[in-house]
Specification:
The chain is of the alpha+beta class. Helix content is 33%, strand content 32%. A 6-stranded antiparallel sheet has the order 4-3-16-13-6-7. The chain has a 6-stranded antiparallel sheet with strand order 12-11-8-5-14-15. A hairpin with a 2-residue loop joins strand 3 and strand 4. Helix 7 packs across helix 9 and helix 8 runs antiparallel to helix 9. The longest helix has 14 residues. It starts with a helix and ends with a strand.
Amino acid sequence: MLIPEKRRKAIGHARLTAFYDLLRQQGLEPIQAELGGPHEIEALVPRWRGKVDRLLIGGGDGTMNAAARAILDSGLPFGILPLGTANDLARTLAIPTALAEAGRVAARGRIKAIDLGEVNGKLFFNVASIGLPVAVAEAMDEGEKARWGVAGYLLAFRRAWRSTRAFRVRIDCDGRQVSVRSIMVAVGNGRYHGGGLTVAEDAALDDGRLDLYSLRPQTLLDLALMLPALLRGRQRAFRTVLQLQGQRIELRTRRAKKINVDGEVVSRTPAVFRVLPRAVRVIVPR
């Protein structure tokens, strides 16, 4: 079981002990790794190859992203304990947010094969994006995030909006080429990102494709009016939105743009995205 130290402290010793007892009642014998932070997961998982039958990972979307390569290489199914702020991957998979309920799913759920996205060699579960989401990630205050939860994203968005500038991006989606002015481009493997925004109404983690949407320059009022559609994945209806689907997507910008991958800024354009169909196995509710 992989839970970063920060998350273990937040749960508390008594609650964590009770959780281990619950797992044993469900037929699992938990092995707890000494994990300082998510960045250590990739080195730890290979040590357990052949010794465990599943991985249980506790954290948010950033922790899940940090574990993606290790999960892929191990071939083991993994269960999710949603201990983060947004938990968009868990939301997509209908994993309960209550620790005990998530533990029961990890012990007794069914195994489902899902896709992974990849951008410039970096794996992702949810979404990789340029423009406004990068500014939001960089404006995020960890203290606000801890105190206000998902509402912390709104505070970061308010600061990020002031610094966001339109840019031109050339998009190649499975050979279809288009050039647009944009304030953000999101490429999704999963369904949710940014604390509940939906990439596309029919997006799924096992559909074998990537879903792209780009927002053209617009006012804050226009964006606010679009918000209900963004929450449901119905933004295609707006004239300021470009939406595409494909298995290989390339983005090129005049100046290199930072890329936000599952909440972490880790690369820059030019960017090549591809989907790895049914690459990993996750444990989901029956």
